[in-house]
# Entry
Amino acid sequence: MRFAITGAAGMLGQDLVAAARSAGHEVLALARAELDIADPGAVDDAIGAADADVVVNCAAWTNVDGAETSPDDALAINGEGAGNVARAAAAAGAWTVHISSDYVFDGTKHSPYVESDVVGPMSSYGRSKLAGEREVAVEAPGSHTIVRSSWLFGAFGPCFPATILRLAGERDELMVVDDQVGCPTFTGHLAAAMVDLAARPARPVGIVHVAGGGDCSWYEFAREIVARAGVSCEVRPCSTAQMPRPAKRPAYSVLRSERDAPVLPDWKHGLAEYAALTRVVSPG
# Structure
């Protein structure tokens, strides 16, 4: 099978390229420098020439707070750009796999969100991701899988564990919010699951939830990161109100599936793999 992967130089993109090749598939890796998905003509040309069976769109605006001040830019990539990729893939006879976010929910539920739950994004970023889901569904109605995931972290890009470890090395104490709960998801695990979905004889049409097993708050996540690293830094809990951010985050965004979705390992296993990888790839 031949994969074309947009956003291939990003954190998830790099893991997807590796996972697809490890599974024996051919891969055309399209980094942002090679393909701007907000340019419909460029997308048509690149996907049309790719001769791919599956097009996985990992290109995205990922700056959640930045989307509040640049909503049109976020929408151009996460919304219209996603539609460009799906339209071009459908025209080329390829299946679209698109990555979306837990931020399409408002976080008011007290049990895990499943695919059929009502959406209600609270931020510009969440609205742009929801727009992308809808664009993909319209442009490739019978040939798309939208994978919602959450709290991504991986070895090949900026992420929460990297930030926490950097700050813990600079400070004696960190304050981290404990009233937002979700599912940290290691991109190595997510990438393998997405390849599995794309390679199935009967691919699921529509939305599937694929996120790390278990759940925790950002505070619990940070405490585990620091403990595993053996860093001498005290992690203390605080409320979202004590550390306001430009974009509102869901208070609860645990994702689970009511469909036949891949089940990922617990987030702590993902963190252990992340730690092993970053020890190898970090300088020194």
About this structure: Residues 2-158+184-212+253-265 form a domain with the Rossmann fold fold (CATH 3.40.50.720). Residues 71-91 form the longest helix (21 residues). The chain has a mean pLDDT of 96.
